[in-house]
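Issue 218. Parser rejects a valid record. Input:
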Amino acid sequence: MIRVAAVAAAALTIAAPAVGQSITMNGVARSVSLMRAMAAYCPNVIPAEAQKFAAAFLDAGHSAYGQPRFDAEVAAELPRRDAEVRAAGAVAWCAAQRATQLSLGNRQIFRAP
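Output the parser choked on:
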């Protein structure tokens, strides 16, 4: 459980969009959907590692906002994320996400080049 809390804290830091912005329920839900989409669509991602981040975000959301409320937020977010991936095209979307995650120091979810 301590490992999950540490991963959640690190993941929230990695996913924070900009310094000075507060963490919102939707922002945490977007982090869940981001990691799930990366696991599903990006061949250079290690799915189990991305799912660990998604689970940590999910746990953090449940703790902060309550399970039913947060699960509803995630359920509403998932179709938005899928539409985002489809609109950009999976190859381009994955390349952009990889660049962003690497610039934030999140290398552990990617296969070695």
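Fixed in the parser; the record now loads. Residues 14 and 20 are 14 Å apart (CA to CA).
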